[in-house]
Design goal:
The chain is of the alpha/beta class. Helix content is 34%, strand content 23%. It is built from eight helices and twelve strands.
């Protein structure tokens, strides 16, 4: 028996990735579900990785003893960058799975920090992509607390992203989970009017960079951040020329205190996870889009065989 008086248990999902939604309302309900989940894991000899906003982490620390089995990770650099989160989870899980013990995680997005509809949609898109990212392993169990009173998606929208749901301390298959292709799951909002448009081919890449620089400078985006945007834009536009039929269409506009550069072409990206994890040394492809995710404040990628590919780069503007 453990010190809590409960018999250690083995996770029934130890051989697969388990992605579970925990809807809650208020502090007490939050603690009831998350602490119960953590204590189940500890009684079963599992390691727990906690990636939640700092105010929630403080709540959990106040309720749990510091015995080293619960690891709190710093999400400061990735919390508002959905395209970086899957790569971060891979690193966190691989680090603690190396101990040879089953791993559980608690991950909660800071919906209140999402400043725009695009950020909220991309965070929800990330929740869906987690299912594909870890479908082939490693085996671990992720609980996603969701405050039903937050300014995030509706509970129905969040439910569609999670194959399992937790209520009253019990985990059940989620009958409202939507397994359809993620590129069709969260379509992009229409381009913000007014916008500027420029059709480009390979010889036009210098002119494309000049147009982006002129737009950025008018909005006060200069220096290092402009250079980073220029590098990211060159990577995306080059991919349009190389893989999208030889040309693409650039649109630029400002929205929600950000400069948005949108690239459209006729190509199709088959892997919706491209660019979301650090490329391995022997990996072919995906390095450029990984770099784009590191350089920009938000990256939206949608691609279908019928409609081609749209990639939006967001850069925050100076206050």
């Amino acid at each position: 028996m453990t010190s809590s008086g409960r018999r250690p248990t083995t996770s029934p999902f130890a051989e697969e990735y388990r992605h579970e939604l925990y809807p809650y309302s208020g502090r007490e309900e939050y603690l009831e579900g998350t602490i119960g989940f953590i204590r189940e894991a500890l009684d079963g000899g599992e390691v727990v990785v906690v990636a939640v906003p700092e105010d929630k982490a403080s709540l959990l620390r106040s309720e749990l003893s510091a015995d080293g089995a619960v690891h709190y990770v710093d999400t400061t650099k990735v919390a508002r960058h959905p395209g970086r989160l899957i790569g971060a989870w891979r690193e966190w899980i691989n680090e603690h799975a190396a101990q040879g013990r089953p791993v559980r995680g608690i991950g909660e997005s800071a919906w209140e920090d999402a400043r725009s509809r695009a950020e909220r949609e991309e965070l929800r898109h990330h929740e869906w992509l987690l299912n594909k990212a870890f479908a082939a392993g490693p085996a671990w169990w992720l609980l996603c607390p969701y405050d039903t009173g937050s300014d995030g998606p509706t509970l129905d929208q969040m439910s569609r992203c999670h194959p399992a749901i937790r209520t009253a301390g019990h985990s059940e298959p989620n009958t409202t989970y939507d397994p359809k292709a993620p590129f069709d799951f969260t379509p992009l909002a229409p381009s913000c009017d007014p916008y500027e448009e420029f059709i480009y081919t390979s010889p036009d890449l210098p002119a494309l960079r000049e147009k982006i620089a002129a737009c950025a400078e008018q909005l006060g985006l200069v220096g290092r951040r402009l250079r980073e945007l220029s590098l990211a834009a060159t990577e995306v536009a080059s991919n349009s020329v190389r893989h999208g039929g030889g040309q693409g269409v650039l649109r630029t506009w400002s929205e929600d205190r950000r400069l948005v550069c949108e690239f459209r072409d006729g190509g199709h990206i088959e892997d919706p996870l491209v660019g979301r994890s650090r490329p391995g040394r022997t990996q072919i492809g995906g390095r450029g889009l990984w770099l784009v995710h590191q350089l920009c404040d938000l990256v939206e990628i949608r691609s279908t065989p019928d409609e081609g590919t749209t990639i939006r780069l967001h850069m925050e503007l100076p206050v």
